[in-house]
# Entry
Amino acid sequence: MTQFFRNILEWIYGLVGSYGVAVVLFTLLIRGILTPLEISSRKGMRKMATIQPKLNALQQKYGKDQAKLQQKQQELMKKENYNPLSGCLPMLIQWPILFIMFYAMRDVANANIVNQAFTFLKGQTPVFEPFLWVKNVFMADSPFKTAAVDASSLMTAGANIWNEAIQKLSSADLETILSNIRAAVPAAAELTQDQIFNFASTSAVRDTVNTYLVPALQTMPAYTAAVAPVAGWAGVNFLLFKVTLYQQFNGLLILPILSGITQVMMTKLNPSMQQQPADTAQNSQTAGMNSFMKYFFPVFSVFICLSSNAGFALYWCAINLFATGQSILINKLLDKQDAKKALEEDTVK
# Structure
């Protein structure tokens, strides 16, 4: 499934010629496919909201008799024609698809940063994939990250990505890369290609990157120029972190900040986050958890987008914006349906 989604993303890129635009269109396509599930989920949440006061009343009346309480709750749900899974099941179906989207986008990003690293190792400067203010969508949108690849980004690529990239290299390019690595790293002078490019496991990838690739990259003039820090801004202590401001920085932190803002917007329109009246201990606990999540998700969004490539941050912002717009439209649609149903019931009475 990851490969299938990856093929779709790359097909869209082939049409538009920009990974930034491709990510936005890809996200819109997936959200469109998931719209029927989203509508079904919202209907279930609305139905739950209408019977919640009755459930609260049963809780107060039969709270000390759990068997009786469950019986009365089941009778109420049957009478109201409500399925407890109608609100959460569609959402649970969406999650695997959204995770597959993430993995597909990660594979595309990893394939591109590996190719960029190999271009540097050939002694050349790669052509980055820009989007608006971001110079390379496969690196983080931050002035504290370079547009060029670094060790941490290279170690996220799995063995399949590395082997796929090696197979695409011409014999001449592969020999040039191996020669540059052997010249930069004395320990690699007598090693074979398979010994240098050992991607048998996650730890092997980490060792290969740190032992051979990064030291070799640091001897390439094009790479050293691309990762040069601003004078006096290398390893500066900032709160609990050390940061470096680069001459060729990759972004302006706009996408991580937007991710937090759009997460706040989406959370406010999510019916599941609306607090229920705290007239029982259970409702009080639920209200407290919802209040916590309203603040947690935006902060988490900023954190995850700071530590991810700009393509993923763009996806996160896009999906939040689409979900917000979708929520507004679905709510208006359901409001009209509820008003029509209420009018019909009044007419019958």
Notes: The beta strands are 236-238, 241-243.
